[in-house]
Amino acid sequence: MKRRLLLTFLVGSGISPALPSSGKTKKQSPYDEKRLLEQNKRIQRENNAPDEFPNFVREGFTVKVVTSDNFVTRDSGLILRDIEVGKGDCPKAGQQVTFHYVGYNESGRRIDSTYLQGSPAKVRLGTNALIPGFEEGIKDMKPGGKRRIIIPPELGPPVGPSTFFSSKQFEVFDIELVSIQDCTRRTIGFYSDVVCS
Predict the structure, then answer these.
(1) 12-42: buried (b, 16+ CB within 10 Å) or exposed (e) per residue?
(2) 24, pLDDT greater than 50
(3) So which residues are the signal peptide here (predicted)?
C-alpha cells in the first residue's frame, strides 16, 4: 500500500521513477555490411551476374563499392579492370570505335547488350555520343581489349522517364573494343558528312 501511494505521488507530481525495461533491443544494425553483402550476392546469383561482379553497399545516400583488388579507381570516380589488354594504338577524339558491350545495373541484371542485338556499336569519340564514364573507360583501350567499368552516377547517363537508368545508381559495363577507324569530312556541293573507314 505504501509503494502504491509513493508511486501515485511520484507520477502525480511529475517525477517519474526509473522502471526496469523488459523490451527487446535490436542487436543487428540494419546496415550491417556483411549481411548486406550476402544479400547482394544472393540477388546477383539470381540475376546470373558474371564472375567478379562488384557489390554495392548502400547506407542511406552513401554507396560503398566492393570489388576485388584487380580494380583501379581513377580520380574521376570511374572504377575499371582490364580483363584482356588489346594490341595497337588507343583511339583518339574524332575516330570511330567499334565495340561490343553488356550493361548491368547494381543487382547484376543485364540491361542492354550489343551481343544480343547481333551487331557491335559504332561511335565517334569526342562527339558527346557516349556517357562521360563510358567514353573515359573506352578511350585508353586498344583493339582486342576487354574491360569491365563501373560508372558512378556523376559520370553516368541522364536520368528520367525516357531512359532505363535510375538516379544515384552505379552502372557496370563489360566492353570489348573491336576496332578503330579514322574519319574524314566529305563535302559534295551543299551536302557534308563524316565518313569513317
Answers:
(1) eeeeeeeeeeeeeeeeeeeeeeeebeeebee
(2) no
(3) 1-20
